[in-house]
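Researcher: Here's the sequence for the chain we discussed earlier.
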Amino acid sequence: MGSDSCGSGLLLALPDDLFAMVSRSLSPRDLCNLCLCCRSLFSLVASEKVWLTQCEMTGVVPYGDLIEWRRGISSYKALCRFLITVKPLLGIWVHQNPELGNVVYVMPGFVSVVGCRIIPQELGPLGIEDGPLLWAAVFEIIGDFDGSTVFFLHGREKENDYFYPGLLNGIEKNCNVLLLEVEAREQTSGSKLVHARSFIDHSDKEQRTICRSDSGLSRSQKLVERSELMVPFSRLAFGDRRRLLEIVTSHVRLRAPNLARGPLFSHSRNDEESFHKYIMLLFERKSLLMKLYKLGEGNIDLKAAPELTSDPTQLEMSEIRKSLDHSSAISGVLNVEDGCAQVAKRKTFSGYFRDSFKQILGKSSSMNGSRPNSKKGSSSSENKYAQLHDFLKSGDKIGLTLLASSVKLSSYRAWPNMHDSRFALYKLPMRAPTTGQEYAGLWGGTFGWPPGRPSEDKPGKALFFLLLSYEENEVGQRLLIATKILEGTHYVLHPNGSAMFIVNIDEPSLDPFPWDTDADSLPVVIQNAFVGDGIANGYGFRYPGSKPGSLYVIQGGLLAFMWKESKAILTLQRLNLQELLKKGERVPALPPIANFSYLTKSYSNVFAGCANTTNCLASPR
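Model: Thanks. This is the structure I predict for it:
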């Protein structure tokens, strides 16, 4: 279709810069639809300036970083595709265990997003802004040359750092659960993979079966029916899911080269020369990781391996079955204690297959420690989990996958109710400060006054991270709730996700602030004070009580909650995690599965303990 017939003459007459400004009113989908009108509009929309504008509108990284990221990708259009895909992952993800806090902050890297775990820690004499924040890498998602995504799980085993490559199985726009799973994939004749259904799908609908009468169906219809037969990973019992993750990670792991252990994101632009050196290092690291992902360990040189017979990110199902026949070779992996499920008798994969065939013959009980089948018929509990061998029959390849899904979650005071046996992270809703909700967001601080100032008897103070959010009570009063998401003590004092204090914003406090000066001997100016209740000992650890206190808004951006009876004070300041992590200190990670989601109930600092030890293969208790 010509430009005149489709009425595009006015748009084509606009200069590129002006059309780029006009394109700010269009979404990427609108631009793609505009490409279909005629060849002239197709060429116009293909302009790099147009897609640079779209990249900037995503708000993932500032304009200056977009220019640097473009070096690692084919076009701004491809970069925009990547940014839109990964944007829903940005933010704070948590898990209930360990109780000290399990906070993973997902932030931009270099043509990537990186999941960084904040280590529970004490605050040093330099304070929050200048003292190094300890963190460990959990995962990263890198943009390939065409804008597609590449997933790496991080982990450490026997003093060695490893990458565990996998697939990103979809990111929903409003995702709130991040799942680490194993996926069975079906290889078609066209070398494309047919993926299993969403692992969030818990449908109990009767599955279709393929019989001889299906021989007249087309190939696409057969593939659809085959996909319907695939067993979701989530329907497996916890023990089966854990063992599959263990064996797959042990097979796909790639030893991290020295360059790949380098920085994951750039530093600030205060020193331009140092900044550009970091960019070059990041570019080389990204190129190395992409080769590692596509070629595998030992095949980094593209010229030496122009054609590959296997994909490093996945395993042939025949390899898994060979491993099942040689259970002694993988017994060390299968017997790693996870602590999340205690079983009296450990079984190897070959044992599972033997039991499955015995079950067909009616000679054994069901797997995973469930009761034998009753003569009166099977109960609902016996059909609760899918069989492992059914899952393995879902495809001819198997590999790691990361799934970001949106599910309906209940919550209590901004803390989501979590499933205790899913290898998952849960996203915390972050609300920007607005009129009437000025204190919403992430805050951090320590007990004591002046804030962050260590004393001679206590050189370090426990660092607390609190998420402040607003709710209305039954009578319409506005409540400010401070939810604890990280606690830097050696042994936990309060449950993860508990409210450190709850303040009635509509009720001012008349109690005076007991200090006149701050750390710099400057006068303290109180802007507002509100009545509230702070956490206190209650009916055991899980059910804390509360005692009255006041929240003070101090000039200079500080909040301070003081318990009225004890005069204990918790001082807080707003946190910019992205900037703190850029100048923080990276520490070694946990073993891969525990590094993603630590399911063992623990009341001590397992992350700092593992970072200081030489062998962290078994999950600490």
